[in-house]
Amino acid sequence: MTSYAIGDLQGCLDPLQRLLDKIDFQPGRDRLLFAGDLVNRGPQSLQVLRFVRGLGHAAVTVLGNHDLHLLAAARTARFGRRDTLAPILAAPDRDELLHWLRQQPLALSDPASGALLIHAGVPPQWDRALTLALAAEVQDLLAAPDGDDFLSHMYGNEPDCWQDGLRGVPRWRFIVNCLTRLRYCDAQGRVHLKPSGTPGTQPPGLMPWFQVPGRRSAGETIIFGHWSTLGRVHWPQQQVYGLDTGCLWGGCLTALNLDTWQCISVDCPQYQKPDTHEG
Question: How many CA atoms lie within 13 A of 60 on its CB side?
Fold first, then answer.
């Protein structure tokens, strides 16, 4: 069995199918680990959800910010002007698809490779065990009746720093923001969610989350998506792989073989203009 981690799809099924042909993916033999953002902005979000769900035990995904946005939109019927989620919410199998999505984790540990898979980032105060525990806490919340209430209060950039004493919505919002939106931190461990460009373009005093000195998850192999402007996939010194290679924006879709640590990619058509990118 070979496991492959795959970057952000964002509603782009055709490139995924070409990538799976290229790696000779066999559902009965191989396994796919998606780095989140299965849906939104691309033209085939409904088809992507159906396809990945239909793979059963051959695939797992962590939740990304666009996946959570879909769950929130299903409750509030609020959409952004570039959202492409309406076909999902109008589909006859929407309830089954949304229920399946709500059961997916925000972080997972791959037992074969030892890698930690998330969508966005890990703040410097968290180690691997705490990251998985906090992700499970929010996963349990989303699967419970109270999850709908949290989805109504999920949006916002505060609090911006982890404290063990955080409780309720502020605690859950911080967890979600880190695991699904984080790119940059300052040296004090505060998260800064607005900058989204290539490292080197950020405001002074900020650095990629994986370069913060004293990061407690240092030494772990971490795979993530979310950051299509990152500039490269592998950052060897930090032991991280950023797999969002801009499929939606006319870049490519990338799979990482977790046995050989080699990347395989296919070129993608441009479904959104890069100057409209919001991550």
Answer: 15
Neighbour count for residue 136 (Cβ, 10 Å): 14
Q: What are phi and psi of 30, to 5 degrees?
A: -110, 170
Average pLDDT score over residue span 175-179: 98
Per-residue pLDDT tens over the stretch 183-228: 999 999 999 999 999 999 999 999 999 999 999 999 999 999 999 9
pTM of the predicted model as reported, rounded to 2 decimal places? 0.96
What is the tens place of the pLDDT at every residue in 34-88? 999 999 999 999 999 999 999 999 999 999 999 999 999 998 767 777 899 999 9
Distance CA 24, CA 239 (A): 27
- Give the whole-angstrom CA distance, residue 80 versus residue 193: 18
8 Å CB contact between 220 and 190: no
Tokens 């109008």 label which residue? 90
pLDDT at 7: 98
- In 10 A of CB 216, how many CB atoms? 18
Count how many domains the chain has.
Answer: 1
The enclosing domain of 156 has a CATH number of: 3.60.21.10
User: Helix 65-76 and helix 168-181: axis angle, to 10°?
Assistant: 130
Q: Do the beta carbons of residue 131 and residue 138 sit within 8 Å? A: no
Instruction: State which residues form the domain around 75.
Output: 3-276
**131: number of Cβ within 10 Å:** 24
Contact 106, 175 (CB under 8 A): yes
CA atoms within 13 A on the CB side of 204: 0
> Residue 179 in contact with residue 61, Cβ under 8 Å?
no
**According to the model, what pLDDT value does residue 109 have?**
98
